[in-house]
Amino acid sequence: MIDVEAGLRELLDSLHPIGRNPGTSGYRRYAWTPADRECREWFHRQARARSLAYQVDRNGNQWAWWGEPRAGSVITGSHLDSVPDGGAFDGPLGLVSSFVAIDLLRSRDIVPTRSVAVANFADEEGARFGIACAGSRLLTGALEPDRARSRTDADGVTLAEAMRAAGHDPGRLGRDDEALARIGVFVELHIEQGRALVDLDAPVGVATAIWPHGRWRFDFVGRADHAGTTKLGDRQDPMLPYARTVLAARDEAVRRDLLATFGRTLVEPNGTNAIPSRVTSWLDARGPDPAEVTALVAAVVDESTAEVSNESWSPLVEFDRPLRARIASVVERVTGTAQVPMLPTGAGHDAGVLAAEVPTAMLFVRNPTGVSHSPAEHAELADCVVGVEALAAVVEELAGR
Ligand code: GLV
Ligand code: MN
Ligand code: MN
Questions:
Q1: Is the CATH number of domain 213-314 3.40.920.10?
Q2: Fold adopted by 4-211+316-399
Q3: What separation in Å is there between the alpha carbon of 197 and the centre of ligand 1?
Q4: pTM of the entire structure?
Q5: Among 78, 79, 83, which residue has the most ligand 1 atoms within 8 Å of its CB, making it the best to mutate?
Q6: Which segments of the chain have a pLDDT < 70?
Q7: Residues with CB in 5 Å of ion ligand 3
Q8: Residues 205-241: pLDDT tens digits?
Q9: E strands within 15-168?
């Protein structure tokens, strides 16, 4: 039998330097950049090292096959891209655990009846082009190919140009029925992005649901002018309505017990001694009830003078009940616990997008501080080992032997 801890350490270490910002120790692995290319080469190398058949689908998602690529296979995996200065585990832990789980099953001479594949979904975070889970949304048709292709990054580069530069043909984007048919079931292992497992003193949990969430762009228009000579009364300063809107979003979120975040802002011309001509900022709003989230956003828009457009909406996802019950009983057996924690999450995932098409499920690995989307994100190796053992048992259960 293999040493799971050593396998995990080796794979996590091999990803460690890619796209790492030495100033913050965070990761900048944005879709279709050189750092992303290195991550994708890493994935290809892991497939080759295990003699897993390697594929890239029409939407740029990578697949490594243990067995023939066939309809109705068991798929596990996650993503390798990151948010700006993200942590080392959000996404990569799912990929690393998937490869080590296959190593573990092979070392036990398990020969699955159904084919198994590891998938790396492209552009999960949407950090560069603004749409989260772009690879899985394109795969299912939830994201229009033309809309995706024309999205631009902060430098005005379109997604189509970025993909082409990275060697992927953007002309073939769109719903891919063949690739979808190969997904019989998808199980994503992910670091927990909160503190539920810490409080429950459990190394792993099973997801029940993903809260509905969305992104809205707010454009506040003003007039550029001199900071030292323009009287306050003569200014058209968009920073002021922007600031009021941020506070309004916070107040609405507190009042309704939801989450609302302005986490990204662009200011033009962005000079210390210039009144801005434009402020653009993005609202991320989430909560357990879609109608409540929609009502929060409507209230914020109502109180704001900005032009507002919705950039993405992810409906409430309830993971497949029979599948999650089956997975919970496998995890209980492997971990020797009477009842594995069953948790909803406010974070978005490819498993949530794929849930509209196929049965999907998620396993969470404890995060001692709960911090995520930050360099401080962390999981203890001992918990990751339990995660791999749980994932391997789940794959064995679903794929048969
Ligand atoms: C992705 O992690 C998200 O929840 O936005
Ligand atoms: Mn994330
Ligand atoms: Mn993630």
A1: no
A2: Aminopeptidase (3.40.630)
A3: 19
A4: 0.95
A5: 83
A6: none
A7: 90-91
A8: 999 999 999 999 999 999 999 999 999 999 999 999 9
A9: 20-21, 26-27, 53-56, 62-66, 73-78, 116-120
